[in-house]
């Protein structure tokens, strides 16, 4: 009888231990879930914001041209000296931005545009005709183009769109149709998309004053737009295409390239 009592008295202790472990396990799961939830937004922010190459802001036109030439030479090792020469960019097309002291972070991009423009108000005015922006911003990816577009939406007005011209869900025919019918003040896109729109003759350059290359931004692999061959190739082609080249080479510097 005593043995039976001992057995029955031990069972509640074992059950109590199980309940305690169960509660602790649940608490552990909750804690783990909370930690994961807390860190996920930070990871997403890092993926979006990336890092910044602060050396860019110290480069005058000569240093920029040399910097990009080295990137071209590294990316196109199979080209001859003559072929490389065709891809190199002249320092004449770049404007000096070394007097803009603020960090080249996304939040300072609007300040940068105001710094290189005649006035803040000019940034909210379109070229008048559909597809005739005064400013083109060259971004490294669709995600970055979306971030840049959001940061520059302060310059959007009823008669002047701040237009994202590239994203995974925006196919070329859709972009062509949009540019054809929209008065654009600032257009943002990847090098290839901008080149495609120029070749389709819907993106016009007659009012173009500035081409801003988002050159300080680094992706998660610490690469800038100048480090990736798939971006550098269309970028150099974009800046050498006749409509752009005519604006860059025109007397009185109708248009200039600024590296942010």
Automatic annotation (TrEMBL):
> What cellular component terms from Gene Ontology apply here?
90S preribosome; nucleus
Q: Where is this region: Disordered?
A: 1-57
What Gene3D superfamilies is this protein classified in? Answer: P-loop containing nucleotide triphosphate hydrolases
Coiled-coil portions = none
Checking Pfam families in the record gives:
CMS1
Q: Which domain of life is it from?
A: Eukaryota
Q: Where is the composition biased (Basic and acidic residues)?
A: 22-57
Name of the featured protein: Protein cms1
Q: Name the species this protein comes from.
A: Endocarpon pusillum
């Amino acid at each position: 009888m005593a043995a039976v009592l001992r057995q029955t008295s031990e069972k509640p202790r074992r059950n109590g231990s199980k309940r305690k472990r169960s509660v602790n396990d649940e608490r552990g799961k909750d804690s783990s879930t909370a930690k994961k939830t807390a860190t996920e937004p930070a990871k997403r922010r890092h993926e979006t914001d990336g890092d910044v190459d602060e050396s860019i802001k110290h480069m005058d036109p000569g240093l920029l041209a040399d910097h990009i030439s080295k990137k071209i030479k590294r990316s196109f090792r199979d080209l001859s000296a003559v072929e490389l020469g065709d891809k190199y960019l002249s320092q004449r097309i770049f404007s000096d931005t070394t007097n803009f002291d603020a960090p080249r972070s996304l939040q300072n991009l609007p300040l940068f545009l105001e710094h290189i423009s005649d006035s803040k108000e000019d940034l909210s005015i379109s070229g008048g005709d559909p597809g005739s922006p005064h400013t083109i911003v060259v971004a490294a990816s669709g995600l970055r183009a979306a971030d840049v577009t959001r940061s520059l939406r302060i310059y959007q007005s009823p008669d002047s769109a701040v237009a994202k011209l590239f994203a995974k869900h925006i196919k070329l025919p859709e972009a062509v149709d949009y540019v054809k019918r929209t008065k654009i003040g600032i257009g943002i896109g990847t090098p290839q998309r901008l080149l495609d729109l120029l070749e389709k003759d819907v993106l016009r350059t007659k009012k173009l004053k500035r081409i801003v290359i988002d050159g300080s931004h680094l992706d998660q692999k610490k690469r800038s737009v100048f480090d990736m061959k798939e971006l550098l190739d269309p970028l150099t082609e974009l800046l050498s295409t006749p409509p752009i080249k005519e604006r860059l080479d025109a007397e009185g510097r109708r248009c200039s390239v600024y590296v942010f």
